[in-house]
Amino acid sequence: MLHTRLPVAWVRAGHGIPTVCSRHGLPATLRAHTGFESSPPGWTYATIPLGLFLFFIVRAATRKRVEAPVWHYCDRCRALRRNARAVFGSATAAGVGIMAAGFARHVGDPGILLFSLGLLVAVIGYFGLTRTRLAVIAQGAVTQDGQWVTVARPAAEFAAQVDAAYRQAQAQAQAQAAAVPAVPQASFEEQARQLLREPGR
Ligand SMILES: [Zn+2]
Predict the structure, then answer these.
(1) Contact 158, 18 (CB under 8 A)
(2) Cα–Cα distance, 1 to 18 (Å, whole number)
(3) ipTM > 0.90, yes or no
(4) How far is the CA of 75 from the centre of ligand 1 (A)?
(5) Ligand 1 geometric centre to CA of 29 (Å)
(6) How many other CB atoms are found less than 10 A from the CB of residue 73?
């Protein structure tokens, strides 16, 4: 399955959220609040040539965020996050260190080179760190219309639990519809029949 999706109202209410992790379909060892975000609309990338700062402003203005009070993560999810944080955190720190070393030198070729190298390593480390957010581990994102949280490449167990939640909701809706008595129409017909039976009234 390429992706599965949950209504935003369910995600916000913690309704129909599977009890396994979305990435591996394994039993949860961590229940955590997770903030899902929409990816930037394609056209926003056209603002990059005008400057990264403008891009980040447009990105923030068009971003839709949905807070999930509960989402589940397994041990493998947690290890993945821990390791990625260690690697990219170290890279960011090393990059800043190299920049500082380049800055400490007198202005000259080696200094500029070191500084540029440090900047590159720090930027790579920083973007790597943004990929260790829980929502990215969960492979979840908000759709552009803000109505759904989609999970890309969900584990089969996770998708099955989502399907079960949909079936349950559908059964409930049908039961409620059946429980509503068709009184108004029947009584109207009954009244009409009575009027025909007693024309003098
Ligand atoms: Zn997992």
Answers:
(1) yes
(2) 16
(3) yes
(4) 6
(5) 9
(6) 24
pLDDT in tens, 166-197: 999 999 999 988 887 655 555 656 666 766 67
| Protein residues with C-beta less than 5 angstroms from the ion ligand 1 | 21, 23-24, 74, 76-77
CA dist 35 and 136 (Å) reads 10
Cα 78 to middle of ligand 1, angstroms: 7
What tens digit of pLDDT does each residue of 15-33 get?
A: 999 999 999 999 999 999 9
Distances (CA, A) of 197 to 184, 186, 191, 201: 20, 16, 10, 9
Give the pLDDT score at 168: 94
Distance 50 CA to ligand 1 centre (A): 39
Phi, psi (5° rounding) for residue 22? -80, -25
